[in-house]
Amino acid sequence: MSWEIVSNSTTARYNLGEDSYQTETIKLVSKKFHSEPGDYKEPEDTVCIATFQADSLHGMFSWKVSARRSGFEINPAIEEVFETTIPDPSIEVDEPAFDILEKE
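^ thats the sequence. predicted structure below, dont judge the formating
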């Protein structure tokens, strides 16, 4: 069974000063799968790193998300959003939600 990381959010809300804004549509721009050693006597883990981007009135936002299917586990899980890039350091952004879509 194959799987991928998807965004549950269509857009991201953000604040700049006292004003609120919304990005354009969040899009998947890249995904890479690789294997990492499992725990003792377990099969390798499958890891996916996905990059999502959304343009806005103030520039480009991006998020890197990791997910893992460990050894004997059937279902993969989101590990973390480990890199968020915003166009202006004074912007406060509501992080979008990410999930796993499993395909048969």
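The longest strand covers residues 27-36.
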